[in-house]
């Protein structure tokens, strides 16, 4: 499988740390020290998970003239912050593309959903049911967030990203998906209560951030090492590591465990906050133009619930 193009959509409205200082007294320096976040994006009036998914997909297709919408035969969408649980972001993207009677799937495994979406594409490709797929990840965190929550209200940002994936190579610049590994870890720690989003109750809450931190660091490093071992690669063979953008301290911890140079880790959390399952895909888009032949990229993720995964890409 090959990633032919990736594009993102980020809302225009910027929420700085000073907003939370005025709201609930959290100092900007404290937020930066604890999370690495300086600002985040917030969807405006009329924007939501579906509209952001559509715009990210428009941008990806506009950059891919050899991947017309008419050639798409599978759409997989992922979010844990749906605008509509029935007319999902994947359906909205299908309607936008005008491609009827193809498989359309929406999933959620929290912040690790990107890699599960890629695995679904892998399955459709392997069974011969599809050959060109749109994977779109979109989060409207601020629709569910309580900004006055001093534990987690300052963490979240909105955004979306779309990956165009083909069974065969289309362009020399395509990234080959070498391998994807995912897993669930719902039996460990406080997976059942550490991060929850119950729409009819409080929205997003994270009462056990320390538990999330500990297991995210453990699993993201472990699955990356497992992936590299399976591919007979060393950490030095990886050009860029793109972790889930949950917390800059998690990224630094994982990089330290792996023995990787810090500058090889891609981070956008400083400007975007935690954009959920879209964060790593946005990071891949940020890195796309820097990649050259022979480069390898590892995306590693961890999500509330708990779930995790890693993917190796090669140009």
TrEMBL record:
Please list the GO biological process terms of this entry: fatty acid biosynthetic process; secondary metabolite biosynthetic process
Q: Does the keyword Ion transport apply?
A: no
Pfam family of the protein (one): ACP_syn_III_C
Mind listing the UniProt keywords for this protein, alphabetically?
A: Acyltransferase, Transferase
Which residues belong to any copy of the Beta-ketoacyl-[acyl-carrier-protein] synthase III C-terminal domain?
228-314
Q: Which GO terms describe its molecular function?
A: 3-oxoacyl-[acyl-carrier-protein] synthase activity
Query: Does the record carry Coiled coil as a key word?
Result: no
What Gene3D superfamilies would the database entry show?
Answer: 3.40.47.10
* Residues in Beta-ketoacyl-[acyl-carrier-protein] synthase III N-terminal domain copies: 107-171
Query: What name is this protein filed under?
Result: Ketoacyl-ACP synthase III
Q: Which organism is it from?
A: Hymenobacter telluris
